[in-house]
## 1
Amino acid sequence: KDSGFITDPISFRASANDNWRAFGVDKATGEDLGLAQLTEELGQAMKAAEGGTSRFGAIAAVLNRDLSPRWLMFTPPYVLLLIRTFLTLEGIAAKVDPNFNIYETAMPWAMRRALSPMTEDGIEAFRSTLLTEDNRVQWTRLIELLQENDVGEGDSRELTEGPDLIEIDAESSKKNSQKAKQHSVGDALAEVLGSTEGKTLRRVIRDLDSEDLIARLASKDAKPVRQAAARAAGGALSLPRIKKARKRKQTDDHVSIANIRPESDESAAIHKRQARFRRTVFWLLLRSHLHRQAERGWRGALTMLSFTWLSCRIGFGAVAHSIGNAFGRKKTDTTAPSD
């Protein structure tokens, strides 16, 4: 609405012969009901369109062919220029990587922007999305997010768990590209936390009710969260084995090392400085929460005991996960046919 792409309130018509009219407004809340309906129809149309979830060009076809006959939309000149630019870049990238997905590639930058709001309204919306008014985590939203992530990953979960060495074929190349993009998303989260733009995120982490968070993490409902943490920690434990495997097999003609984006010396130096600052920020935030629990007396001591037990549970799960990956990989290697 702010860009003038759609009207306010949103205008709609059932058929091309009807006149445009406002879709509807909730009298109690003042919410434009057309926004939710338009969003739903756009999502369905993008999923049904060829390349809708991977090609930016699909959105232009969907908006023009499927939605514009029933929803009143305007295309500002700068939007046309953006569409043309993205289509050109997308075509060039597709020549290099046939499995190129512009949305996955743009995800790290989109996440950085979403996690570092600048305006007062954006900061308020960001904070209310993560925390309640009494600084407790929006637990229901967190669980829903993890469940959606599990559904989205599906069988590709092995990408974050297995080694970086894979056989060269079309399917493994696609999985390898997806893995690199997943790592980029994780890097985006870490970079925001340690950057000047991450001030809002750091304040949210500082202000959250750690006692409530630990209690919820130890509950039955938090099992998906604990499992996700164990998988991530288990993957980190597997890194030394991965590096050794890379050195042993880097000369093998039937395997290739995961494609990593080239990086200059200056960029590497910047990333090292950012990593040091992230570690400093992490310990400062942790110390502030520990100090807060120390001031609470015996209740704080119980919270710390719960945190210690929770860490042990996740640690045991990470070790079991790493061992399972190691034995699973060995079994695969011993049963694979030799040339």
## 2
Amino acid sequence: MLDNRPSNHTVSTYITWVNNQLARGVNTQPISNLERGISDGVTLPHLLQILGEEAVPEVVIPPKTEALRKQNIRLCFQYLQQRHIHPRNSTAPDVSNGNVKCIMRLMLALAANFKTYRPDSRAIGYVCKNSEHPSNGNMVSHDSNIGDTDDMGWMYDQVIDTRKQLESLKHLLLKDITDDEKVLLDEVGVEVSEPVCNSCQDTSEKMRSLEHLVTQRDQQLMELKAEVLHLKTRDKYMTNELDERNVQITKLKLLLERKQAVSDSSKPRDKKEARENTKILYYLGTSTTPYLSSCPKPLGEISLRDFKNVVNRAGRYRYNFRTFDRDVGPVKQELAEDGALLPGWEGRIVGFVEELPPGNSLDHIEI
């Protein structure tokens, strides 16, 4: 079965990056193991406090129980979500369980969204995805930009090839020479021990320098990967925000259309039709709430017979209507003849219908 675990050198690069950031904090300890260090419930909150310049809320340091350790990791992920940072394929349970690949993805997300620090150069600044006016482009620590992941992959292959060549060269230069080679060199009067040792020492120093250079390249490659991840995350965030705004605009359009439809339905279709319809309000018995109806005639042409047809109640009733008397003021006028025209009140008919008990005058009998 193939081992998909990252190489020790790759993990070491991430450890170096984490320790470089922790060195900026107060009372923070470097880590020597990536899985145990990030999942201990202490290092990750400290790292986020340094990068985000604010403490992660509600974490308990040090966590005295296993539950508190996992809770601290979960609170760190909640803090990242509040800042719209979503590590790809990495969750709080993965980090709590020490999944090294998920931890590496988390570190890439942090490098992509926070200002990081390298002791051998200046701080590495990334544009926040919520910023509307970036000052110096997306990444200010490199002179060249990475257009896509193919360029990034090519650089990674170059670093791997260089590392393999260095390992082969080291093996060839440091291997022990045989006794026959020593005798042959003695016959020609050559001192073996000291020159060979000096040569090995010089070669070792050169190789350490080359390995340091490769480590720096690995660090830069990690930052480039983080930049690509940041660009993809920013594009996804902007796309989601645009979709949400389009949904809001659609809802507003629908609301405006509904209001327009209601407004159109409340408007009279024709002025003549509006004039020919008269509202009729009438109170039945002792009720204080009037009934509302209408008559398809203009005010001044509505008779008591029309009113009875609107009320449409069987029995014997007395009919009174609100009107205005110049000498008295507002009064109720009783009408009994079906042909009598009803008085108006403020542009409508206001009537009072009172049911008569048995035995009263037959003048008010409704047939």
